[in-house]
Each structure stands twice: as C-alpha cells, then as structure tokens.
Specification:
This protein is of the alpha+beta class. It is built from eight helices and five strands, in the order αααββαβββαααα. It folds into two domains: about 120 residues, no CATH class; about 60 residues.
Length: about 220
C-alpha cells in the first residue's frame, strides 16, 4: 500500500460515506487485513464491550461521542487505555480528534477534511513518521509529496533495476532542488513553477524533454 493509493482510498471513503462503516473503511483504506476487519466488525477482536467503542489491541481505540466535549473525551481515553492502542480516535461525525500514542502527535479536523491529513495514520500502513524536533512541517510535506511522486512514477514504469532506481532518485533530487531554490530565492519567486506552466503542454507530453534540457543547462 503506497501513499497515492491511500489518498485515493480516502477520497473514495468520503464519496460514498457511511457512518456505520466509517471506522472499518478507514482501516481498510490503510491496507489493514480485510479478514481482521471482518473479525473486528463481528466483535471477535473488539476488546471493548461498550456500544460505540472499538478497542483493537496495538491498533486503535475508537469512540463515537455525541454528548460530551470531544477534547474531554479523548483526554479521558488517553489516560485509561489498557491495550497499547496506537491511535485514539473520538468523533461526532462532524469533527474528528485523534492522538498517536507513540509520538503524542494530535489531529483536530472536520471529518470531511481527513483526507488532507492522510499522513497522520500512515503507521497503520507500516510507514512510521520520522521524528525531528526542529523539522519544518513544510519540509515534511515536501518529502511526503516526493514519496507520492516516486510511487506514481514507479507505477507507470515498473522497472526495479538499480540503474532505473538511481536515475529516478537523481531526478527527484533535482526536482526538489528547483522547488527549494524558489523558496530560498536562489531562483526568482515561482520562476521554476511558472516556467513549467508557460513552456510545456497541459497534458505533460513534452515535459520530459523540457526538464532534460533544463537540468542539462543547470548542470553546466
């Protein structure tokens, strides 16, 4: 399960939203085993016997909350969980609050905005979030976008040879430098982005030739 597929899964989840199956659909969106989700639905894996709650060992504590403040609810849950649940989620299906109990990261968003924060639950897909105390959130987002682009290029070019992977990494490094150069004023503001928009076709059919020429010039 790669980042691009997870984003697509989340978009589909909200295009056919069902409150009763939301939490199960969310888990499936991150590639957790269907057989385990089926057992969770049936109650076999659910360690909580309270209606509206799900406790899945080492994975999730989920609670529907309609009466009390969500912030108070999730705070109380965080102090009482017993099964090393990685994520705590509380929602009234308008707002969603979540805590990553390993990193202490927190999420507070409207439910429909959840796809924008797909990276929060990436550990479910086996992708841990790197922890750097002073890392700029913009840098983190850029790295995630580069990872998504890598996945998309690999999907359309199923070549696992060392030569191809090396070339792809070089390409992404050059691309990242160009965006960095815009942000740090090595280039003029939006110079690279505007050049792509102005000098290439909308369908991207000539983008490879343009970038080849650009990178050759920058390397001389």
């Amino acid at each position: 399960m790669n980042i691009a597929q997870i984003e697509l899964n989340l978009q589909k989840l909200f295009s056919t939203f069902n409150k009763e199956s939301f939490i199960y659909d969310l888990l499936l969106a991150y590639g957790l085993p269907k057989a385990s989700i089926t057992r969770l639905k049936k109650g076999n894996l659910n360690l909580s016997k309270i209606e509206g709650e799900i406790s899945w060992k080492k994975k999730l504590f989920f609670k529907e909350e309609y009466s009390n403040d969500l912030h108070l609810t999730i705070s109380e849950i965080s102090k009482s969980i017993k099964h090393n649940e990685r994520f705590i989620i509380a929602t009234d299906y308008e707002t969603l609050l979540a805590i990553d109990t390993k990193t202490d990261d927190k999420l507070d968003c409207t439910l429909t905005d959840l796809p924008k924060y797909y990276d929060f639950f990436l550990p479910w897909a086996g992708m841990e979030k790197a922890q750097h105390a002073n890392e700029n959130p913009a840098d983190v987002k850029a790295a995630e976008r580069m990872a998504k682009l890598f996945d998309e290029i690999k999907k359309d070019n199923p070549d696992d040879s060392p030569e191809f992977i090396h070339s792809l990494n070089v390409f992404l490094s050059r691309l990242l430098f160009c965006f960095f150069a815009e942000d740090t004023h090595i280039f003029e503001e939006s110079q690279f982005t505007n050049a792509i928009e102005s000098h290439t076709q909308v369908d991207g059919s000539d983008l490879n030739t343009y970038l080849d020429t650009l990178f050759t010039v920058l390397n001389t």
